[in-house]
Design brief:
- This protein is of the alpha/beta class.
- The chain has a single domain, classed as Rossmann fold (3-Layer(aba) Sandwich).
- The protein is 43% helix and 14% strand.
- Strands 2-1-3 form a 3-stranded parallel beta sheet, sandwiched between helices.
């Protein structure tokens, strides 16, 4: 009987500690600038609203901002990501800006 109690209590104690520890960590703040409120970018506010971002430890902040100022904000370190594209992105990339594409929402031009 003495050996049975520790074998039951140890897993219960571990699960309680793991569950309690999950809320201890702060969420990572991620700032995203979007060029417009369009269907193309619905994934960001939708994921935040449904709690998917919080589940992944992300506190998402979206800001609607035109493409050129959005890219400038990312280059200045004020924003983390941008949904900007078009000629503003081409101009910045030709200037050897340290930017990378990490997500493409569509595979074709929508205009």
């Amino acid at each position: 009987m003495k050996n049975i109690i520790p074998s039951i209590i140890a897993p219960l104690l571990m699960s309680v500690l793991l569950l309690a520890g999950k809320s201890v960590y702060a969420l990572d703040k991620v700032n995203v600038t979007l060029p417009s409120k369009s269907f193309q970018f619905i994934i960001f506010p939708l994921a935040k609203e449904r709690g998917y971002m919080r589940e992944e430890g992300i506190d998402l902040n979206t800001v609607i901002m035109a493409s050129t100022p959005g890219l400038q904000a990312v280059l200045a370190g004020e924003m983390d990501f941008t949904g900007s594209g078009s000629s503003a992105l081409v101009a910045v990339s030709q200037g050897n800006a340290p930017l990378k594409t990490v997500l493409a929402i569509t595979d074709q031009v929508l205009q």
